[in-house]
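Chapter review: from sequence to fold.
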Amino acid sequence: MNRIYMDNAATTRITEPVLEAMMPYLTDVFGNPSSVHAFGREARKPLEQARKQVADALGAQPNEIYFTGCGTESDNWAIRGAAYASAKKGKHIITSQIEHHAVLHTVEQLEKEGFTATYLPVDEFGLVNPDDLEKAIQPDTILITIMMANNEIGTIQPIEQLAQIAKDHKILFHTDAVQAIGSVKIDVKAMNIDLLSLSGHKFHAPKGVGALYIRQGVKLQRLIYGGAQERTQRGGTENMASIIGMGKAIELADQQMEQHNQKLCAMRDRMIEGIMESIPETRLNGHATKRLPGNVNVSIRYIEGEGILIGMDLEGIAASSGSACTSGSLDPSHVLLAIGLTHEIAHGSLRLTLSEDNTMEDVEIAIAALTRVVTRLRSMSPLYNAN
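The token string follows.
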């Protein structure tokens, strides 16, 4: 059986050009970039080149890019760092109900430490209303953090409008762009973004490497103390090979974005069409057009998402029921509940996320496999048979 991978929102494979870029830094160029000797200088130059590649993809300056261990670390640093650096001005933070847990749990922890938070609702498509943001701002609001694109339902937020509101009120604006890199054109200056998080393994770089954009002039409290790496702001010897890989991957993602999006949108739209035609009582979650090119998220009534996943896996297709970070939880997705789904319907959800490695043939195979799985599961469902 040929296996088909459709869980690219969880992680992506390292592509050949990225692996080739990394290899010398796993073998020959092994010096510590903080060392002053020739081995260190040999490592320092490509490190700074990768920093420039990340900056160029975001419309930033290289000295505004700081390498981290992952998107979760970047989110923590941005939110906790901003909160504690601005605590004398105020202690109110605004976020949304559908953020990744790297954001939600960080904000919740800050609430335990004396900060306050407002969690903005979203509409049925997962969009934050800019008017709701405007109304939520208080005199002591110090940070607004809204994700650029949702990792479960794929909805892309009106970040420029939201960030403009923050700028008008002189409030720091952070966006978790982990799912958006390579799919959404980003210009942090034009979009008035102060802080932006990203993670390499979402766009064909290795796991265990990320970055945080910090607009020049923004002050954050350090999250990790240690040596003088990352211009004294983030201690720890840099993960050289992975950083080089991330630099190459984001450069390629930026260069190939238009072609990438065109291919993925065609496959995404065909998959949505095929599922809706073949499987009755199914709904699309997220916005129909303001969504990531490779994201398909559907709720299928009368059956459990875990059963769908097992059935699809037996068919050779890798999918998910939501965020990989919460796949072990029995609770329904907080994102699906926030857009108004009942617990029953939210439990019957499936996320299929595509990459340029997928083909239209893969899509047709997946539609047929899902139809078989749902038919089999519904034949055993007392809820379905009672309707």
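Two observations follow directly from the output. The first strand starts at residue 4 and ends at 5. The chain has a mean pLDDT of 95.
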